[in-house]
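Good morning,

Attaching, inline, the backbone tokens for the sequence recovery test we're adding to the shared suite. The designed sequence is right after.
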């Protein structure tokens, strides 16, 4: 596949602060790992510098009032931040801090996702990966869950504005609530989110019964999982639900949010995946041969982020990477007090016992097959 990797060192200017769990260094580490593997020297691989989104493009999803508030917040001293803006638009301390570069950095991340979508739409490449994208929680008039501008929704809206049909697949541990909200009443976009149940994790949404309204009934699909769900069960749920829906929907474009906070060691979530389950889903997506816009997302163990997204891009580009991490990368993470030797996790044995996690997932799959598959003419 002809592949584009969207990256800029300017992504690192988007700094939430020392105590915040979302670290932009994870983007640099991903780039450095791929560079160490010399993947950017392949004939079918391009590395592309993003350009910031325009205000008009951001308005495809976000309100003018919110955009102005975010722009003003960037220039403000956080200690003097207008509390009305904070309360109204979710800006301030905690999850969504105000910092120098928050507005311009958000525009750059959105611009990368729009660029990825347009490169794929113009058939310049078969797949484009914006690792700074995937900020799927932002709502039209407020920041939410570390997300200020909803780049997946904006990129999808840009495509649908030209009559395209889009399937959006979100495998982040957190429910893709902002993207679902943007397209909850349309049949032009099929949103599918597999995530840890909202009973245990932010944002508290994504129940299997959230299926859309009006023309969008049956076009929002959610498959939640219980804490402790492993590779085998998560991938089983994916295989049961996602390929049949994608085949029936016949999208023009595939947009994916590839958050890797599903990993066992992630400090913010409670799932139990490894690189093996993650890459299995990437391989399945590639087989479909749908023009593909890939976006980043969550991931708070930064070495896991670099490993997983490097593996994902290698699969997209059709490159087989050695399992031994390059010495250059090992030295780089060592300076951060981190360590790793292998690109891939060991393969685990399949759990033999049936437990509450399996029963919960099976109930979710059963609901989708009974209530959503018929809408799409799928006979199980």
């Amino acid at each position: 596949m002809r592949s584009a990797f969207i990256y800029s060192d300017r992504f690192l200017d988007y700094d939430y602060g020392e105590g915040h769990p979302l670290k932009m260094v994870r983007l640099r580490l991903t780039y450095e790992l791929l560079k160490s593997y010399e993947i950017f020297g392949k004939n079918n691989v391009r590395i592309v510098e993003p350009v910031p989104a325009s205000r008009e493009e951001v308005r495809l999803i976000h309100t003018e009032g919110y955009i102005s508030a975010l722009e003003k917040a960037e220039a403000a001293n956080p200690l003097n931040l207008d509390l009305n803006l904070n309360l109204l638009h979710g800006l301030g301390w905690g999850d969504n801090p105000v910092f120098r570069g928050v507005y311009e950095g958000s525009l750059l991340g959105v611009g990368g996702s729009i660029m990825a979508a347009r490169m794929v739409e113009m058939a310049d490449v078969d797949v484009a990966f914006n690792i700074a994208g995937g900020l799927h929680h932002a709502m039209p008039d407020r920041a939410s869950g570390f997300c200020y501008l909803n780049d997946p929704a904006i990129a999808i809206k840009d495509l649908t504005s030209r009559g395209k049909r889009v399937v959006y697949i979100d495998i982040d541990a957190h429910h893709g609530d902002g993207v679902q909200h943007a397209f909850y009443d349309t049949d032009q976009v099929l949103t599918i989110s597999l995530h840890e149940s909202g009973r245990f994790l932010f944002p508290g949404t994504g129940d299997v019964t959230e299926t859309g309204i009006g023309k969008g009934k049956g076009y929002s699909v959610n498959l939640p999982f219980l804490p402790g769900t492993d590779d085998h069960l998560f991938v089983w749920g994916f295989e049961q639900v996602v390929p049949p829906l994608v085949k029936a929907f016949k999208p023009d474009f595939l947009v994916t949010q590839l958050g890797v906070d599903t990993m066992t060691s992630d400090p913010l979530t409670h799932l139990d995946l490894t690189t093996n389950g993650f890459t299995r889903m990437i391989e399945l997506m590639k087989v479909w041969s749908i023009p593909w816009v890939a976006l980043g997302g969550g991931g708070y163990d930064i070495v896991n982020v670099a490993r997983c997204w490097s593996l994902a891009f290698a699969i997209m580009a059709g490159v087989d990477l050695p399992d031994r991490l390059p010495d250059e990368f090992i030295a780089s993470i060592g300076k951060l007090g981190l360590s790793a030797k292998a690109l891939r996790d060991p393969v685990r044995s399949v759990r033999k016992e049936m437990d509450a996690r399996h029963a919960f997932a099976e109930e979710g799959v059963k609901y989708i097959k009974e209530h959503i598959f018929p809408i799409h003419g799928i006979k199980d």
